[in-house]
Each structure stands twice: as structure tokens, then as C-alpha cells.
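Hi support team,

I submitted a single chain yesterday and got back a structure, but I'm not sure I'm reading the C-alpha cell output correctly. Could someone confirm the output below corresponds to the sequence I sent? I've pasted both exactly as they appear in my results page.

Thanks,
R.
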Amino acid sequence: MVRQRETEQKLVEEEAAKRIEELVQKRVEEELEKRKEEIEAEVHRRVEEAKKAIERQMMEEMEWRQAKLREEEKRREVRPIQRNIG
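Hi R., thanks for writing in. Yes, this is the structure output for that exact sequence:
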């Protein structure tokens, strides 16, 4: 009798835990569905922000390299002139 009650109680507890888990899962899915557009918009915003940052870095690096090349060209132009003078 006691053993049967314990078994029944265990089954009730397991069933309750299962139902709670299902309800929590359902609630999470509902909340995600509600916020889906908001989440997608936030992801899109962050991706665009990252793209702009990378693009900005690439432009800065390209400008820096162009400046270095111009400096090098000026040095090359100055050296032959100095040789002709000397």
C-alpha cells in the first residue's frame, strides 16, 4: 500500500514536471515569436554596424597606404633632383 502510494506520487511528480517543462517551452516559443521581428531587426542593425566599422577601417588603411605611397614617390622625385644639382 505504501509502496503503491509512493509510486503514484512519483508518477504524479514526473507528470507535473513534464507539464511544467512543456508550458515553459510553449511560453518561450510564444515570447520568441512575439519578439522575432524585434530580434531580427536588432541582429540586422548590429550586422550593418559591424560592416560600417570594417568598411571605415579599410578606408582608413587604404588612405594611410596611399599617403605612404605618395611620400615614397616624393622621396624618389627629390633624390634625382638632388643628384642633378650636386
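A quick pointer for reading it: Residues 2-85 form the longest helix (84 residues). Let us know if anything else looks off.

Best,
Support desk
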